[in-house]
Amino acid sequence: MCGMKIDYHSDVPVYKQIITEMVDLIISGALKEEEELPSIRKMALDLNVNPNTIAKAYMILQEKGYIYSIAGVGYKVAKPPRDSMQERLNEFEEEIRKILKKMRKFPISNDELQKRLFTLVKEVIDDGDQG
Amino acid sequence: MKKEWKMLQIRFIVLLVVMISSAVVVVLTRNFAIGALNSPEIQQYIKNSSKIASIVGKISTNFTYYSFSQWFGKSYIQLVAIFAIILSSSSFSKEFSKKTIYLIASRMTRWQVYISKNSIGWIAFSIIVISGGIGYLIAAQLAGYHLQPSQVLSWTFTSTIGGLLLYQIGMYLSLLFKDQMKPLVVGIAIYIGLYITSFVREIKFLNVFSYMAQDEVLFGKGVNIFSTFVALGIFAVIFVCGYFQFKFKDL
Amino acid sequence: MMVIKAESLVKIYHNGVKALKGVNFEVKEGRIFAVLGPNGAGKTTLLKCMLGMIKPTDGSISVFGKTPFPDGVKNASFVPEGKNLYEWLKISKMVDIFASFAPNFSFSRFEGMAKRFSLKLDGKVGELSQGNRTKLYVSLAFAQDVNLYVLDEPTWGLDPIVRHEVLSLVKESVLEGKTVVYSSHILSEVEEVCDDLIILKEGELLYNGTLDDLKEKKKTTLSNAFLSLVKGDSL
């Protein structure tokens, strides 16, 4: 949670940045089902963010079913909603697509483009296996 | 309250010391003054005018007369008038010019700000004025002169009432300006105006200085009650007007 | 709950300057509300209206359900644009005197603030640098345990470390359920702390809403959105 990076000055509102980061942590399993989340207070102090912003992020995460609240105890991680991973994958693919379109405009062959992409994929997979 | 006292503290002490030491000096220099008046040069000069000669005679022989002509009717009144304006003029104007008014006016009601400034001022000023009168009396007794305490108290009383009126005028001026010099200058101009009234029969009653230095007291009469009430009435009107001036002022 | 409500608020000064030309907004409890605008937009005038320092020419403003003029708001603490204290007083005396008239002043809160800002209490107020004077003023104001803090350029003259502390203090006050009105011309600061904001220009409201909505509607950063609004683009 502490590794979360917030950019106040981005065009993306801070509450959205927090939601995205937490959704990814939940889908990836870094935050496990039933795990207790830091309180709004603690989260606000740790991230040095306006507590109202954390409250807004938690509220939306709850609406979307990523987390749930237990009165008097706090917030816990829920089972990731169906299709949630698919939604995020689509978003990531969209980002990759944009970049590939840019690369495609350079004077390189289709083979070259494919080769580079495969190398990257292989690199990431190998890194992941070692880690 | 605490702050108002702190703001006045140094000026209060200085003015108190000046007031008491002036009273003592006037008592102590009596012999010197009479010596000067009885010198051959002065006698030569005044012998043509029987009126002046009789005044000089009275000053030399009668200590009460000396006290009135040199202190209660003269320097004392001048000091009271000057001190009134020195103590009051910066009271509000300094808060405006230094912008400290936001510190206090956002945390107290306008009435609280107004009454604390006024009441501390009245107390400090009255102490200075009264100690000028009482200090003179004590100094005179210690120097072996005889003075009627009732006369001294009458003059001290009228000077305090009149002085408070002048003080209140200064407070009002202090509300009107955002710098500290203007209330001082306008205050002095008003004094000159008040003094000039004594030369015009119709508006003579406006001369607060002649009320403060009542010569009737010299002839054994008491304090002029009517004038006292008029002075207090004007004082109250200025106080109330000042409050409304301050209450509805944009800070 | 509503803390401040302004309706068609107009302020015309005696010299004819129209500082506010009919401004409407609400400040909700527990929120950080920023007042933005270029110089001369009417920010300070608006804050003075909130605290009853000046009388609105027309329209109305209420704070905690009451009209602030002329007696001020007991449940609010104000840090004005000029951080002026009594220069001739010793700092420790200044604290005592402030405590004597400031509602709900808590010495323990003050000590906490002073420690946080590493404020030294030796010497006279007049000997303090601009930055230290601001620190002292902010510490005194936040030592009052009140429900509304109205801050006019509270980071003026502060170095980045203390500025960061002040911003954290503002954010944390939300945890205590406090409401903060924050005026600044430093957009990056406001962007870091505020929930809601208004943007003023020449006495008129250009924007009134949440920071998130502004970013989402304009699809850009606060500074770009601010610039385009001030230049006259509509949302």
Walk me through the structure.
The complex is a heterotrimer of chains A (131), B (251) and C (235). Chain A is built from 5 helices and 2 strands. Chain A is mainly α and 131 residues long. In chain A, strand 1 (67-70) and strand 2 (74-77) form a beta hairpin. In chain A, helix 1 crosses helix 3 (51-63) and helix 2 crosses helix 3. The longest helix of chain A is centred in the C-terminal third of the chain and has 21 residues, at 84-104. With 251 residues, chain B is an all-alpha fold. Chain B is elongated. Chain B is 79% helix and 0% strand. The longest helix of chain B is centred in the middle third of the chain and has 33 residues, at 110-142. Chain C folds into 2 domains: 2-75 and 147-231, 3-Layer(aba) Sandwich (Rossmann fold), CATH 3.40.50; 86-146, no CATH class. Chain C is built from 8 helices and 9 strands. Chain C is globular and about 50 Å long. The chains are: A mainly alpha (131), B mainly alpha (251), C alpha/beta (235). The B-C interface holds B 1-3, 6-7, 98-100, 102-112, 247-251 and C 13-14, 48, 51-55, 70-73, 76-78, 80, 82, 84-87, 89, 93, 96-98, 100-103.
Concise description?
Chain B is mainly α and 251 residues long. Chain B is built from twelve helices and no strands. Chain B has helices spanning 2-28, 30-37, 40-46, 50-61, 63-88, 90-97, 101-105, 110-142, 149-176, 181-196, 208-212, 225-247.
Secondary structure elements and pairings:
The complex is a heterotrimer of chains A (131), B (251) and C (235).
Chain A: H1 14-28, H2 40-47, H3 51-63, E1 67-70, E2 74-77, H4 84-104, H5 110-130
Antiparallel strand pairs in A: 1-2
Helix pairs in contact in A: 1-3, 2-3
Chain B: H1 2-28, H2 30-37, H3 40-46, H4 50-61, H5 63-88, H6 90-97, H7 101-105, H8 110-142, H9 149-176, H10 181-196, H11 208-212, H12 225-247
Helix pairs in contact in B: 1-5, 1-8, 4-5, 5-8, 5-9, 5-10, 6-9, 8-9, 9-10, 9-12
Chain C: E1 2-12, E2 18-28, E3 32-36, H1 43-50, E4 58-63, E5 76-79, H2 91-101, H3 107-116, H4 130-142, E6 148-152, H5 160-173, E7 179-183, H6 187-193, E8 196-201, E9 204-210, H7 211-218, H8 222-231
Parallel strand pairs in C: 3-7, 3-8, 5-6, 6-7
Antiparallel strand pairs in C: 1-2, 1-4, 8-9
